[in-house]
Amino acid sequence: MGGYITKRLLAAIPVLLGLTVIVFVIMALIPGDPATAILGSYATPENVERLNSQLGLDKPLWHQYFIWLGNLLQGDFGRSYTLNRPVLDEVLERFSATLILAGTALVLCSLLGLVAGIVSAVRQYGWADKIITLVVLIGISTPSFWLGLILILIFAVELNWFPASGMFAIYGGGDLPDLLWHLFLPAVTLAAVATGVISRLTRTAMLEVLRQDYIRTARAKGLPENTVIYKHAFKAALVSIIPVIGIQAGFVLGGAVYIETVFQWPGIGSMLVKAISTRDLLLVQGGVLVVATAYVLFNLAADVVQTVVDPRLR
Asked: Which pTM value belongs to this model?
């Protein structure tokens, strides 16, 4: 197991490096420059040239990349141009808020998706299956940012049940109930698409298992239906469902960029949007690298759990 994990981590290094190169090139293609964005009304040609020289932005792009890469290998992510603070400190501070949102959404979509998929498979072609299929198709087809705006309009503006933005109340609050109150709408929005995907694939996996001979044998022996469904069928189907949950974990983490912007959640997604608009290259690189690394680790964790559940994969 240790050798397998090591191989997966080593194989991820070229992928992460290639991603940083792509980000560097894309940021270079965006019109404007960081010095102009930082200086604002003071962006005279002389001031821009002086600041570019101080930040090292007057060097060729490949030179800037290798300087950044050399510092990264020493554990230095650089310093944000616009925030004037270490990139790693800002990214980790924001990433903790993103993990709260993405983690809650992942738990929510996993539980709802598994339950809906099992019910849909057990009640195949029944009313429950048809209703779940309709809801899932609507959820998968609805853009997350649009769904977030609709939920804000209904539950925040019209009904005033939940806040429309932020992570905590501006005045007072700051405790767990306040966090959960602010977390509900963005977590539901972020989990909607992933819930549909997990539900459909759970249904497919369960139907395939329920057609196996040993399930018929278990029923013929007179075992309770709940035992057949949850102890035998679901346990066998879970082997093919776990990788899907791992993939959805990455998509939930990536989708947080849109949801954090809609709900003004102070996570890494909203940070990246602001950093891109101000051409803060080092902050963008640090944020993308941390998100990509988390994506790789989520998928690796899913593979490890799948191996534990099914010893045949070892």
From this structure: 0.80
